[in-house]
Amino acid sequence: MKYDDPKDCILKNITIDAKTSCWEWGLSKSNGYGRVGVGGRLFRAHRLSFMLLSQPHEMTNIPNGRYVLHSCDNRGCVNPTHLFLGTHQDNMDDMVKKGRRHKMVGSGFKHAKLKEGDIPAIRERCNQGEMQKDVARDYGVTASRISEIICGKRWTHV
Known about the structure:
Blueprint: H1 6-11, E1 14-16, E2 23-25, E3 29-30, E4 33-38, E5 41-44, H2 45-53, E6 67-70, E7 83-86, H3 88-97, H4 118-127, H5 132-139, H6 143-150
Antiparallel strand pairs: 1-2, 3-4, 4-5, 6-7
């Protein structure tokens, strides 16, 4: 469906949650964020909503290096009263403050080459005098990674 006014596009494609007052985006989403094409450009719907609806009579530009953050923590929300400008650091601080930070450790990290069960064996081999580069080769990691394990900088939870 084509809209002549981008504001209409936002306002006609939301469902308002009476409990949270979030304006849930009803069209395409990517990673939980609404997506919308306007004038041949693709926008995240919450950013477009902020630009179009946060000021009553003018379009608000988002300064370079600024993010549009959600006070409601709902990626699909486009309610301009739930949106505010901030930096990447503001977003990270908000995430920590609200307990949304999920620290990936050990084999929970999607690119981990090692598993928790490997760590005691690695430590034992190095404690027995085996060279770190040889242990690293066997596990497909770098010697510096083995050194970090031995020195207690990595895999400290094991």
